[in-house]
Amino acid sequence: MENKPSNNDEEILLELRRIECRHEDNAVVKGLSFRVRRGNLVCLLGPSGCGKTTVLRSIAGFQPLNAGEIVLRGEVVSRPGLTVPPEQRGLGMVFQDYALFPHLTVYDNIGFGLRKLDKAQRRHRADELLEIVDLAGLGARYPHELSGGQQQRVSLARAMAPRPELILLDEPFSSLDVDLRERLGVQMHDILKSQGITAVLVTHDQREAFAMADQIGVMRNGRVAQWDTPYNLYHEPADRFVADFIGQGRFISATLVAPDTLKTEVGLIKGDRAYGWEPGTEVDVLLRPDDVQPDPESELRATVGKKAFNGPQILYTLRLANGTEILGLFPSHMDYPPGTDVGLFIDAQHLIAFPRPDGTPGTP
Ligand SMILES: Nc1ncnc2c1ncn2[C@@H]1O[C@H](COP(=O)(O)OP(=O)(O)OP(=O)(O)O)[C@@H](O)[C@H]1O
What we know:
Residues 14-246 form the ABC transporter domain. One of its GO terms (molecular function) is ABC-type ferric iron transporter activity. The structure is a single chain. This protein folds into two domains: 12-241, 3-Layer(aba) Sandwich (Rossmann fold); 249-355, CATH 2.40.50.140. The protein contains eight helices and 21 strands. The protein has helices at residues 52-60, 106-111, 119-132, 148-160, 178-194, 206-212, 230-235, 240-245, and strands at residues 12-23, 26-37, 41-45, 67-72, 75-79, 82-83, 91-94, 166-170, 198-203, 215-220, 223-228, 250-258, 261-264, 267-270, 282-287, 292-294, 301-309, 313-320, 325-331, 341-346, 352-355. A six-stranded mixed beta sheet has the order 7-8-9-3-10-11, with helices on both faces. Strands 2-1-4-5-6 form a five-stranded antiparallel beta sheet, with helices on one face. Strands 14-13-12-15-21 form a five-stranded antiparallel beta sheet. α3 (119-132) packs across α4 and α5 (178-194) packs parallel to α6 (206-212). It binds adenosine-5'-triphosphate. Residues 23-24, 28, 46, 48-54, 204 line the site of adenosine-5'-triphosphate.
């Protein structure tokens, strides 16, 4: 039967098959598909309004489908005309605003979904979870007596309490400051992995996504633009949108002079792969900040524009002689004021290039 998993698919816990969601007449999720293996942490990442939350709500059972289906543990839980209610899906959820009950202690917040257990069992499970999320001893506190990061770990403990196989996280760290976000992302990743829990995370923050996810679906306008590992999204973006959205960098113009060599505004660059375009094809090449290294002796010169200090490194905006701006990541002892003339060495092997829309047409 179509909806039953084949033997090969037993590892698939969740599958979205060409789902479509509308808000009034507006299709905000359009033919979106992906599969999540048991134990994997996946993330939907994309700019505000691209439909991430709508997808998560459809998995949770809060958002009906206009087309397609959602299969959970081999059973169809959503299709047009059928939406199995959230409480029957056996999922845990963690939201952006913690959503802890302010008038309940940490113990009672965690125990909230464990009403089938008696008081002693609830306390035992809550202690176990507080240990896992590294908050042992704080069970008697109220949410306002905890930091934001601690509250979010209580939310995770509460979501994990009934032992769900799948946890959904909606922008779980967005109200925390940037450093804490990344740290908590790594902690949550480790906790979920150690417990063998599968999770779907939604965020617009790529650092959060990179810290937590095994696979990331980059969303644009209700569709997945690329579904891949964080490494591949960064190094092998499928299109210009993904290349722009993931990581930092600037496009510079270039001409393909050999299958693996580009003549660029910063000299000849030889990459580690061959392109299938015709020689002479005009392309745009993405230069990441770590491709641009300082070299005082170099003939390639630039003028320091803006700078952003981030501890061990400084991110410089560098203006080339022809006015093109690129980014360079220098060790932080190379501290130059704006206006300084610096020499550059381009150390790029992974060349990400896209034919220029108005350039010679080519087939990648
Ligand atoms: N209840 C609703 N009624 C009408 N339109 C809605 C509703 N909820 C969301 N939308 C619209 O659907 C689109 C997708 O919204 P969604 O919340 O899924 O995006 P998102 O990617 O999660 O954005 P954000 O990162 O800002 O939360 C947006 O254009 C939004 O305005």
